[in-house]
Amino acid sequence: KSHRRIIQQHQIKQSMSRKGDCWDNAVAESFFRTLKTECTYHENFKTREQAKKAIFEYIEVFYNRKRRHTHNDYLSPVEFERKSKFA
Fold first, then answer.
1. Based on the number of CB atoms within 10 Å of its own CB, is 77 exposed (0-12), middle (13-18) or buried (19 or more)?
2. Does residue 20 carry a pLDDT above 70?
3. Closest CA to 64 of 76, 81, 82
4. Mean per-residue pLDDT, 21-35
5. What is the pTM of this model?
6. Among 30, 25, 24, which Cα is nearest to 69's?
């Protein structure tokens, strides 16, 4: 109940699929697996701020701009988006 109350207070639209239907979560779960494997599992952060900074840099500097994604024809998300706008 507290979870749903917070969602309502912040006017967040919760995405829920039917029981046993995991397809809407597949992309998010794949991303978090990659984030943990490539960024956090091998680290021992001393503070929450260190973790936040490392995760921000991983996502904004590396993952979105440099890391190639097989789903994007081996382009980074930024390159793929740029290419699709001019296609």
1. middle
2. no
3. 76
4. 81
5. 0.64
6. 30
Please report the DSSP string for 7-18 in residue order. Answer: HHHTT-------
Alpha helices in 1-87 (DSSP H): 2-9, 26-35, 48-57, 77-86
Residues facing 75 on adjacent strands: 69
Angle at 25 between CA 20 and CA 26, to 5 degrees: 100
Model pLDDT, residue 24: 66
pLDDT at 17 over 90: no
Q: Taking a C-beta distance cutoff of 8 angstroms, is the pair 54, 69 a contact?
A: no
| CA distance from start to end of the chain | 47
